[in-house]
Amino acid sequence: MAKAREQKGFSLIELMIVVAIIGVLFAVLVPRLGNSSDRARVAGVRNDFKAFETAIRSYYIEHAAMPSDTDISTNNVLETGRYLDNEIDETNDPWGHVYTYAYTATTTADATVTPNLPAGTRAATIGCAGPANTAGTYRMIIWVDTANNNTLVTSTAGF
Q1: Integer Cα distance of 52 and 90 in angstroms
Q2: How many folded domains does the chain comprise?
Q3: Can you tell me the distance from the alpha carbon of 33 to that of 47, in angstroms, rounded to the nearest whole number?
Q4: Is residue 96 part of a domain?
Q5: Which end of the chain has the least Cβ crowding within 10 Å, N or C?
Q6: CA 110 to chain centre
């Protein structure tokens, strides 16, 4: 009688099952990895905002005023004035959109500003458009609290 030959390797069905399992795992894990990338970028925005806050506070201590729009956009005082670390890209957020900076010498109590600030408040707003490139997705507002010895107060939104 002929001896049964030992087969080495996998059958086609076994290989197809392994490929199907890998496909299911890939379909489940890839969307989660995309979300972690956005979470990392949001964390980057938070870190950039902290750096901007520190730079603006340092500028305020030295000059008794916050930098104007022109100081930021044209003169780039935060970077050239030793206030902002050179490793931080003060112009682009982690998605590649431009950070916005707006200085208001005196605000009116306006619902478009979060939080609502008393009339006459000096405030700086830094904005980040986020992944959808929607203005104001993330923002930080620094204002001078005249009722509390002209201290700077910071508020963030969108996180």
Answers
A1: 8
A2: 1
A3: 21
A4: yes
A5: N
A6: 25
Angle at 94 between CA 92 and CA 100, to 5 degrees: 35
Cα 107 from Cα 3, distance rounded (Å): 94
Do 42 and 138 contact (CB within 8 A), yes or no? yes
Calpha distance 69→41 (Å, rounded)? 25
pTM exceeds 0.70: no
For each successive 10 residues of the chain (159 residues), what is the average pLDDT?
A: 68 93 88 72 83 83 79 70 65 76 59 48 74 73 73 74
Distance in angstroms (rounded) separating the CA atoms of residues 114 and 139: 9
The Cβ of residue 100 has, within 10 Å, a number of other Cβ atoms equal to 17
Residue 77 lies in a domain: yes
Asked if residue 4 is part of any domain, the answer here is no
From the list 122, 134, 126, the residue with the least C-alpha distance to 46 is 126
Range of the domain at 53: 14-157
Task: Please answer whether residues 130 and 137 qualify as being in contact, where contact means their C-beta atoms are separated by less than 8 angstroms.
Answer: yes
Q: Backbone phi, then psi, for 20, in 5-degree steps?
A: -65, -40
Return the amino acid letter for 65.
A
